[in-house]
Amino acid sequence: MTAAFRGAVAALVVVAARPAPAGEEIDFARDVAPILETRCVRCHDPANRKGELSLATADDLVSLGYVVPGDARGSHLLDVVRPSDDGPPTMPKESAPLSEEEVAILTAWVEAGAVWPAGVVIKERAATDKSFWSLRPLVDPEPPAPEGLPEAWAANLIDRFVFAKLREAGLEPNPSADRRTLVRRATYDLTGLPPTPEEVEAFVADPSPDAYERLIDRLLDSPRYGERWGRHWLDVARFGESNGYERNVLIDGLWPYRDYVIRSFNEDKPFDRFVLEQLAGDVLGPGDPSVEVGTSFLVCGPYDDVGNQDAAAAAVIRANAIDDMIRATSEAFLGLTVGCARCHDHKFDPITQADYYRFYAAFAGVRHGAREIATPEQRGERDAALAPLVARRGALETRRSEFVAAIAARAEAHAAEREAGWTRPPADRGGVEERFEATGAKFVRLVVTGTDRSPATPSNFRVDEFEVYSAGPDPRNVALASAGGRATGASRRADDFQEAYAAALAIDGRPSTRWHAHGPTLTVEFAAPATIDRVVFSADRERLRPSEPFAAEYRIEVSADGERWTPVADSSDRKPLGDAHRRHRLFEAEITPGERSRVAEFDAELAEVGRLIAAVPTFPSWWVGTFSLPEDRDVHVFLGGDPQRPGDPVAPSSPTVLSEVTTGYQLDADAPEPDRRLALARWIVRDDNPLTPRVLANRLWRYHFGAGLVATPSDFGDMGGRPSHPALLDWLAARLRTDGWRLKPLHRRIMLSQTYRQSSAWRPGAAADDSDDRLLWRFPPRRLAAEEVRDTILTVSGKLDLRAGGPGFRLYRYLQDNVSTYVPLDEHGPETYRRAVYHQNARAASVDLLAEFDCPDNAFAVPNRSSTTTPLQALTLLNHSFTLDMSGHLADRLEREAGAEPAAQVDRAFALCFGRRPDDAERGAAVTLVVDHGLPAFCRAMLNSTELLHID
């Protein structure tokens, strides 16, 4: 395109827009812009720019010659959106072709001069804006008073909202459930455990009008409440005690966060404070472990710790880590899928790419890792205990250094005469050969006194070849495994991976064979005594592993019996590898026996001081993240989500659309790191932020009824569900605020409602109109969650250990080398009989009973758990050793508590498992089973029963 033509086009596309006259004249804003907004800029904007073309402005149309004003035939833009003889149009690629009308509009626009008004920038049109239901200001609606409202449904205002919706649909609610059903339902709901038979009978027999209210209050006060509802939040927080990705290493310092969550729920900590502590606990309570631990929320998700030497790849890994924090925060607290705007503006919600990077700026200084956690008083006490020991160590180190320096100075004075004896080249990692006088031996060993990394203290070295040759005209390698040679030594061994590293490894000369020694020697035993005169060894024959340590200082020894050793060769006449090795050799040659003893005394004193320092109690190291801004504090939009393509700079601030709805915040680009997270947290819980209380109220409702008023608890955007009871949702959210963000009062309101107390009975007529029970014409029954299944089996068997808190137990064998493996345990011992919430849940660690009953793998947040029905559930529950063990324990309990009479045992089993007595038919069948097959078989059947696993 010529300069003159480019200028002509540029002149045309900046013509000011004119009002559309009557008739068919094309107006850019009215006719053309909507097509570009909805069909084009999704892929062709400055942040994406597919085909190197942006349609956000006229610039690329001009510079690339896609449009020739006034010439529709010469405009390539029209060619790609129209069908051709070769087939359908090539654009748009990710959606249906433009309609004939849309193509006609673009053609008419080009023919009319391709006018693009000055200053107009096209952005993809989101499906929602600030008028979307979830972004509107929160209101406190007046509860309705629908016609025909039953008296029992009038007292609790929740029931008014629900009944009004039922009445609109022509539906009636179910009657109340019986007391046995209610006590079982409520107890599981608030504690995740079954009620005891005594608790059931006491409630059923209590004639007091407030018996149910007192039941709810008792359950809310139970420490089991936090264990149950804390588990719900851990799902939302994507809590997992390994880092995931390919290494998937266990994180032992995350359990304090789990305990913090449980404690927060039990204490009914105001949720706004709960939010603040999880995003900025280190700022709100520095030196207070009970507060600082909250920031584990930011770093308890998966992260890639493999590392990458490539700067571009490392930047992507870092961006992924922050992306996890952005998604977790925005979805858990706001119900916004902000993560969808990482590469471009959100396709459906009014979240721009710049908004995403405003969140990014808030978390730019957060990194995964552990920190010592202690109060200032604890730190002061430790410092006081350490100070004299550290001073003593410093004085000893100074005296030792001065003493050794004097010896080293003498050694330098005699250096020339000693260096004259170093005639051979230094040891080579690619191969070392030592020849010596022929000698008989059954054993040969390599004693390493220094490696290329350390001339004095070898900790490990690598050998990929060790050959010992017989003397004579026809030498042979007598160390070969095929010749009966056997190598022994302290080889590398990873915990629980003893199978992978044999105690004895035969060096057989193959390139794949290598020895990673964690001791100073490698010993080879021959099949029979032999006369030898040569040893060849190497660490890296192919020179592919320059970082592996090898033997730089050594000696070769032989033995007939493996007890008495004779040196036959060493490296003393080789040139040293470097200056450190040179100085060490000279020092060793100069030092006298008396001086060596004095150095040993210094070392012994230093070791004792070191032991005393180590004995001073340390502080716990918790996985709570580390916080520091990078040197470059500026955060930029990453075009296309690529860290290598920085765009406009952004500063920490609230999202644009919500700054129009709420009182937003804006920080300077160089704001301190703590201020960034604290400002975000405070904005999330502002009184005028409508999302946080709506999302929280919906989560509570979801866990009580199995489905939220909004079916997508972490997505309140256009792609999420719409509220079934919008006025009720706002009313519940308003109650959260008036209750000071405390959850227990809202639990109480919900569970005291007639809606919650309904029977779960199925009514075909109502189901025909509302098959999903979205309008709540009955209480929705459910299957127990995975943790409830296991905890219930332990409870009724009398084996549940209610110890709370602390490091978790494991239902797997943990195998770790460079990567980790989790092998499910076939047998579960008494140390595993705690509540499942205290299991050390690692990612990608499938654990029999828990996994089969849909315990999630928290690679991501899980706002809605699945509830599947599979054959493996029945097979595992029937045949796993855990169930068999618990069947035996339940049988023992029945014999202790009910005696030897089968009928009494059956009655007690029904009370423990179902909270009721069996009817005559059930009792008769159960007694027959006990008599014919034994009490454990009957108990096994009870633990596999549908009634045990379901709540009505």
TrEMBL record:
<dbReference type="InterPro" id="IPR011444">
    <property type="entry name" value="DUF1549"/>
</dbReference>
<dbReference type="Pfam" id="PF07635">
    <property type="entry name" value="PSCyt1"/>
</dbReference>
<feature type="domain" description="F5/8 type C">
    <location>
        <begin position="470"/>
        <end position="621"/>
    </location>
</feature>
<keyword id="KW-0349">Heme</keyword>
<feature type="domain" description="Cytochrome c">
    <location>
        <begin position="18"/>
        <end position="114"/>
    </location>
</feature>
<dbReference type="InterPro" id="IPR022655">
    <property type="entry name" value="DUF1553"/>
</dbReference>
<keyword id="KW-0408">Iron</keyword>
<dbReference type="Pfam" id="PF07587">
    <property type="entry name" value="PSD1"/>
</dbReference>
<keyword id="KW-0732">Signal</keyword>
<dbReference type="InterPro" id="IPR011429">
    <property type="entry name" value="Cyt_c_Planctomycete-type"/>
</dbReference>
<dbReference type="InterPro" id="IPR008979">
    <property type="entry name" value="Galactose-bd-like_sf"/>
</dbReference>
<feature type="signal peptide">
    <location>
        <begin position="1"/>
        <end position="22"/>
    </location>
</feature>
<dbReference type="InterPro" id="IPR000421">
    <property type="entry name" value="FA58C"/>
</dbReference>
<protein>
    <recommendedName>
        <fullName>DUF1553 domain-containing protein</fullName>
    </recommendedName>
</protein>
<dbReference type="InterPro" id="IPR009056">
    <property type="entry name" value="Cyt_c-like_dom"/>
</dbReference>
<dbReference type="Pfam" id="PF07583">
    <property type="entry name" value="PSCyt2"/>
</dbReference>
<dbReference type="InterPro" id="IPR036909">
    <property type="entry name" value="Cyt_c-like_dom_sf"/>
</dbReference>
<keyword id="KW-0479">Metal-binding</keyword>
<dbReference type="Pfam" id="PF00754">
    <property type="entry name" value="F5_F8_type_C"/>
</dbReference>
